[in-house]
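Severity: low
Component: inverse-folding endpoint
Summary: output formatting inconsistent between runs
Steps to reproduce: submit the following structure tokens with default settings.
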């Protein structure tokens, strides 16, 4: 909820010596109630108003609800001044009636200078309300609107790997006001990482996730951070909490593992990859790709990327095993140090963030696969197809379910609302 709307409601509740009502309107997106307006009845809009009772004129409510419907809004919550720290029996009765009209409805009370919101489950249960200051996001709100910002500010994004590219993504998402970041990485910062990631020298030698967490918390304390100094294979359960997953590590086995988890959980994911090929001191190839995976809709990671047996061996064998095989068969299984430069990471991070914002806000259609060619200075949209024999998703049975939120039509709501207020509830 934007702070400006809550403050408007609180100012009305605080300044009155009799019971006062405020109604919040907005959008319903899944389990999220996104407030973008508030209605505070005027003194003349009440028919009854004492220290413990109130009733609003039906015509005032009908007029306001019709105005909100014209804006594409629905009622999401109400709040009233209250002498108790929880809902009264009368409040519970009103809540039950309102949920017949608005199944998602949340009831709020203002007691002792504090705001609380409740739902019945089956008894009154306090629900979390995130208050958001929108001023910082003014420039991006001009692009995709307040509702999209509220979606960003209440979203949870998991980043698997927080090296060069994903660290940039983490910092930028924090600046954009994403609600929560879940960071997973087993490594520590090395001095050679500092050519492409803005981290203090004193952070060299400490886990990347703790470093990134500390930096973001210092500058953007409104962003919730969970940091796991571990391989994602050791903590796969953390992905369940995420609305979206960003996969950054350049080794195939980690990407394959994440792909399988994404398909299992039905989570949307963004795979980001970069690479530079240098031979005899000359850059032969430089670029990368961004792939969006929506289970059941787009090709998965393994539809497009196939395992290289030699690379898999490099990733899985111990140093002793690599040495033994190399000596016996003359195969070089040493993992090469990959060249990396900040300009490449930043371009791919920007392309990935663009897709992340599109996925969360819906302000534009996603691009399932795009390739950046740094040598030619070009970004290409590449058409990809599902592999009918893909080992990960070919046997996956999916069913798209249209989300309805059980919302009633405008005419039904106004009819129910008229009956509701006529009963004096």
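Observed output (run 2 of 3):
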């Amino acid at each position: 909820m934007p702070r400006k709307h809550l403050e408007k409601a609180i100012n009305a509740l605080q300044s009155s010596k009799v019971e006062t009502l405020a109604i919040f309107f907005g959008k319903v997106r899944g389990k999220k109630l996104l407030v973008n307006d508030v209605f505070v009845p005027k003194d003349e809009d009440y028919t009854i108003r004492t220290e413990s009772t109130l009733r609003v004129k039906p015509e005032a409510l009908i007029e306001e609800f019709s105005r909100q419907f014209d804006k594409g809004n629905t009622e999401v919550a109400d709040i009233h001044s209250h002498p108790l720290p929880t809902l009264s029996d009368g409040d519970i009765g009103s809540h039950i009636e309102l949920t017949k009209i608005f199944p998602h409805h949340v009831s709020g009370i203002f007691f002792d200078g504090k705001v609380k919101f409740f739902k019945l489950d089956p008894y009154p249960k306090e629900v979390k309300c995130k208050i958001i200051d929108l001023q910082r996001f003014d420039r991006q709100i001009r692009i995709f609107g307040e509702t999209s910002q509220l979606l960003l500010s209440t979203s949870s994004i998991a980043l698997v790997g927080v090296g060069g590219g994903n660290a940039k993504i983490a910092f930028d998402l924090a600046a954009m006001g994403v609600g929560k970041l879940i960071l997973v990485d087993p490594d520590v910062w090395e001095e050679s990482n500092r050519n492409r990631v803005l981290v203090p020298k004193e952070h060299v030698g400490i886990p990347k996730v703790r470093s990134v967490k500390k930096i973001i918390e210092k500058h953007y304390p409104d962003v919730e951070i969970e940091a796991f100094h571990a391989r994602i294979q050791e903590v796969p359960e953390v992905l369940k909490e995420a609305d979206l997953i960003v996969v950054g590590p350049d080794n195939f086995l980690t990407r394959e593992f994440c792909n399988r988890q994404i398909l299992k959980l039905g989570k949307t994911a963004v795979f980001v990859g970069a690479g530079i090929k240098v031979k005899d001191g000359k850059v032969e190839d430089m670029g990368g790709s961004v792939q969006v995976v929506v289970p059941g809709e787009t090709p998965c990671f393994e539809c497009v990327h196939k395992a290289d047996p030699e690379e898999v061996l490099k990733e899985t064998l111990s140093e002793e095993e690599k040495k033994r095989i190399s000596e016996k068969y003359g195969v070089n299984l040493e993992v090469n140090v990959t060249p990396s430069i900040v300009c490449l990471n930043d371009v791919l991070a920007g392309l990935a963030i663009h897709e992340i914002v599109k996925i969360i806000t819906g302000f534009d259609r996603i691009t399932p696969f795009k390739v950046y060619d740094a040598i030619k200075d070009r970004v290409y949209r590449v058409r990809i197809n599902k592999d009918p024999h893909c080992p990960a998703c070919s046997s996956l049975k999916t069913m798209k379910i249209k989300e309805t939120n059980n919302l009633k039509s405008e005419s039904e709501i106004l009819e129910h609302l008229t009956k509701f207020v006529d009963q004096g509830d």
